[in-house]
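Following up on my earlier thread - several people asked me to post the actual chain instead of describing it. Fair enough. Here it is, all 93 residues.
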Amino acid sequence: MCQLFFNADPSLYQSRARSLRLHGMVTSIRLENQFWKIVDQMASEEHTSTPRLLATLHDELLARRGAVENFTSFLRVCCIRFEEQRLMTMTTN
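Reply from S.P.:
Thanks for posting it. Predicted structure:
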């Protein structure tokens, strides 16, 4: 099983920061490239831009929880759940 992980392209687990505006404030989000690929796919499937998707997720989290404490961890979990949902859809079709 370790070979599955050791053979991964190193560029996938390198992190990269992207800047965006949330309510007029410029902020930076750092995620690994693999997660950025998934976030971009999520945005594409929602027919929106990645910055707009991130702002929407941020606003929805804020509205539901009253605070946004660890947005990058939240995004990683969103990515995993998105991929899980895609796999479930693929296996049921």
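Residues 42 and 82 are 8 Å apart (CA to CA). That should answer part of your original question.
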